[in-house]
Amino acid sequence: MLILDVFQMQGTLLDYSFSKGHLAYWAGPTALQNTLLLHDDADSVTFFFEGSDTTEAIHLKLEHPQLDPEDFEPIPLFIRSREGKGDPGAGEGAKAVAGEHQLNLPAGPLYSRITVEVANNVCFAMRCMALATTKYIFHVVRVGEALSLNLLGQVDVPAGTVAFQEHRRWLYQQRNADWYVPTLKEGGNITLEVVLRPVCFAPLHPSVGACRSHLVQYSDTCHCGEESVRGAWFGSECSKEQKVVLRNASLCVFVRECEFEEGSESWDELRATGSKASLAGKDVVNWLQDVNVSGKFARLILSDLPYDSSSEAKPAIAAGSKDGHSNVQVLTMKKTSEFQIRNVFVVSMPADILLTRELQLAVSTTQEETDAEEQALPLRVVPHAPPLKLINDTGLLLPHFAMDAKRSEYAACLLSDLKHMHAEAFDKRFRVQEQTVELARDCFDLPVMQKRFRALRSDPCQDCGEYQAWADNYDVAVTLSTQACLDEALNLGEATIFKRIAHTLPCGRVKTHQARCGLLQRAVRLDRWQLITELPTCWDRECTNCTETPLAVAASENKLDALTSLLDSRQVDVDVMDARNVNALWHAIQHCHIGAVKLLIQKGSNVNHLVSDGCSAYLGRLNMDCHSGCRLIKL
Predict the structure, then answer these.
(1) In the chain, fewer beta carbons within 10 Å around the N or the C end?
(2) Strands 98-104 and 134-157
């Protein structure tokens, strides 16, 4: 009996707990192996312990693949002094046999192990003996979430009103902010759902390049395939992927699901019963479902209204905005079945409030409110088909094509026709409809051709509804016009392209039609006046008898650099007259630009012929007072 009592007095922990996560088994002296489920966002946890009266020492060791092996040395948590007093933290003289210790461990999906060694001494007849050390091992298994979004609404089709529903992976939404939808039912609502499906990062299986249902795999790279659209699902084959940096390497941890199955709710059910479902006095299903005592939340932010990112994790709905709706909408928890372990947050709002508006979706997935960290992504619900990509084998487009620009009009330059101009939809559910039309002739009396493209659903979908065109009846159009190309080159400041296009025009056509186009005048207004002096010689820099001359534009707007450059080029006469027989000097006077007046006079503008009997008639056409105008010239 004495031997048995001594054995029972070996080193033990009467109780232990952790500040975060949940233990798989009840804590106690005999629970030598336990599993701590800890969210993958957590980077610290506090260990609480209580030893027996005979506890001599308690040491703790933390092991993790991302930590240096030198950090694996045991840390003393408690050492009994010679006077018989206990001291948490290895100090001397404390009475308590209990204490706590904060552990800092890398956040992420990787497993870690905590080993706690407890040593006891027992004394008989003035003699003490050390008993066997007891080891408590805690397997820290990380738990995270695979996030996805659902967008729901109603659309009108010839057969009536039908439901619209699409789904996106979280990572897909991070890279593709715009969500393109058909024309929704007038006066209807848009419903946004955020789905958090639990992922347990244990065990980790080496990747075999195949789908493994919900098993977590790892490899040097993420084997998730390309992002694509499959039916109503958008994203790659991975519902979860996370890169991990080790000491000397890196790897990707991912869950690969090759099949997108809508409504597969059985995947998210846990039907453990009895003691196996017990989790530190709390049912594991309840723990995964519970958002009232955790840091889980989701909210939708209307980004064009003020928002304080430093606000608390679960704010009240902000004050109403100018359209009667708040700028922060907190998504509510959707009721699930008894065995559902996923969390679904939902918000429903009038479609006209959300369409084409800048939104931000913020979600916290942690199981601990103290660790609540937001993941945020942009979201715009766009009532159009996805933009098309323009493809041209020759020539160039102005402005240069960019998918993100969502521009509807481009000019096709340095091309003879539009035969090789095409468009394609990056969303394979859509096909491209082409139409070529002839428009009015441009200012050079050249024909203007336009090729129009529109995205239409190609898959058999009777209930998809109509997608509103980006322009009147097309999504993007390419115009073949020399005038349009020169205008765009001026707007963009593309000097080299402007000169290349200008050199393609026959001199005879330039001389005949230049005055109608006003390109040189626009060049001055846009501060591209350097282009004028570099044009082919058949271009009239003076633009004599034009409605306004380039020199007059510079004088009217007090562009002194342009005036100097044009006059110093010796290609423009200082007193060149426009169609109203008005020179640049008078434009400077009319707009009271003293600097331009002085510069023109310095450059030799002749004022004497304006101070004559014809002065009254001249100034009358300018709506100026004859005597004050002539007096200004005399000065």
Answers:
(1) N
(2) unpaired
Q: What are the domain boundaries of the chain?
A: 8-81+97-142, 145-260+268-305+325-382, 388-484, 541-634
Q: What is the pLDDT of residues 284-330, one digit of tens each?
A: 666 666 655 456 778 888 765 433 334 333 333 333 343 444 588 88
> Residue 293: left (phi > 0), alpha (psi -120 to 50), or beta?
alpha
Residue 288 sits at the vertex; the CA angle it makes with 287 and 291, to the nearest 5 degrees, is 80
CATH class of the domain defined by 541-634:
mainly alpha
CA atoms within 13 A on the CB side of 204: 17
Q: What is the mean pLDDT of the chain?
A: 81
DSSP class of residue 53?
T
d(CA 118, CA 130): 11
pLDDT over 90 at 434, yes or no: yes
Task: Yes or no: say if 334 and 346 are a contact pair by the CB < 8 Å rule.
Answer: yes
Token pair 């007093």 is at which residue? 85
Give which of 115, 154, 155 is closest to 133, Cα–Cα: 115
In the chain, the N- to C-terminal Cα span, in Å, equals 127
The pLDDT value given to residue 7:
45
Nearest partner of 13 among 33, 31, 26, 25, judged by Cα: 31
Burial (CB count within 10 angstroms: exposed 0-12, middle 13-18, buried 19+), residue 629: buried
Q: What are the backbone angles phi and psi of residue 571, rounded to the nearest 5°? A: -105, -5
Distance CA 380, CA 365 (A): 22
Considering only residues 395 and 91, tell me which one the structure prediction assigns the higher pLDDT.
Answer: 395
Q: Is the confidence at residue 275, as pLDDT, over 90?
A: no
Measured CA distances, 80 to 8, 76, 124, 136, 536 (Å): 19, 11, 18, 19, 97
Q: What is the DSSP letter of 406?
A: -
Helices 594-602 and 560-568: crossing angle, nearest 10°? 10
Residue 122 contacts residue 54 (beta carbons within 8 Å): yes
Q: Which amino acid is at 36?
A: L
d(CA 88, CA 514): 92
**Nearest Cα to Cα of residue 495 among 529, 522, 541:** 529
Alpha-carbon distance 166 to 358, whole Å? 20
CATH of 8-81+97-142, one of 3.30.60, 2.60.40, 3.30.70, 2.120.10: 2.60.40
Give φ, ψ of 252 to 5 degrees.
-120, 130
Looking at residue 191, its amino acid is T
CB-based contacts of 364, cutoff 8 Å, min separation 6: 295, 296, 297, 298, 313, 372, 373, 374, 375
Distance from C-alpha of 497 to C-alpha of 411, rounded to nearest angstrom = 12
DSSP, collapsed to helix, strand or coil, labels residue 517 as: helix
Tokens 């003293």 found at: 594
DSSP per-residue letters across 431-478: EEEEEEEEE---TTS--EEEEEEEEEE-S--TTS-PPBPSSSS-SEEE
Which tokens belong to 615? 């002065």
pLDDT, tens digit, 9 for 90 and up, residues 118-155? 988 665 555 666 667 899 999 999 998 889 999 999 98
Under DSSP, the state recorded for 482 is H
Contact 84, 93 (CB under 8 A): no
Residues 6+ positions from 203 with CB-CB distance below 8 Å:
215, 216
- State mean pLDDT over 437-455: 95
Tokens read off for 367: 């199981």
- Contact between 629 and 615 under an 8 Å Cβ cutoff? The reply is yes
pLDDT at 50 over 70: yes
